[in-house]
Write a structure and sequence with these properties.
The protein is an all-alpha fold and 158 residues long. The protein is built from 10 helices and no strands.
């Protein structure tokens, strides 16, 4: 495993920062597994909020990066339901709310699968419009956020 990803998995901020200070190109590395994640994907996926904040400050463009599944870091944070990480990523790339992955899912789809109603609310508030597929997904999945998605869609159409 690349040292930078080892530091991310251990949530070792000082080690991570030291590696980046020695070689800034570590920020552009991709994981060698089938997902081809960036360091920001990995930090978001594992709920390492302090690392997510440090990474987006060092390299804001990483919020727009996609992994092999077409997920952006916001997709992974939304699925995890981590409100702080979702907020951080939205502050750097609010337009990402409508980005679709290779499975045609938006961060809102994934937030509805998480156990965090608050994360779903944050993503829904930043979504320009809620499409019929998001509404159908929320309703068919039995998700508790179906009412949130429906209400958001209703109020945008008024």
């Amino acid at each position: 495993m690349q040292p930078i990803f080892d530091a991310v998995l251990r949530n070792d901020v000082p080690d991570f920062m030291g590696l980046v200070e020695e070689r800034e190109s570590w920020l552009e590395e991709r994981s060698m597994d089938q997902n081809s994640n960036t360091v920001l994907h990995m930090a978001a996926k594992h709920g390492h909020g302090e690392l997510v904040s440090a990474i987006v400050e060092l390299r804001p463009s990483l919020v727009y990066s996609r992994n092999a599944n077409g997920d952006r870091p916001l997709h992974l944070a939304a699925l995890l339901g981590d409100v702080n990480i979702v907020t951080t990523l939205l502050n750097y790339g609010w337009k990402l709310c409508s980005a679709r992955n290779n499975s045609n899912q938006t961060p809102l789809h994934l937030a509805c699968r998480s156990i965090s109603m608050e994360a779903a609310r944050l993503v829904a508030e930043e979504t320009d419009s809620v499409g019929l597929d998001e509404l159908n997904f929320a309703i068919s999945s039995g998700s508790t956020c179906k009412f949130l998605v429906y209400a958001k869609d209703f109020f945008f159409r008024i």
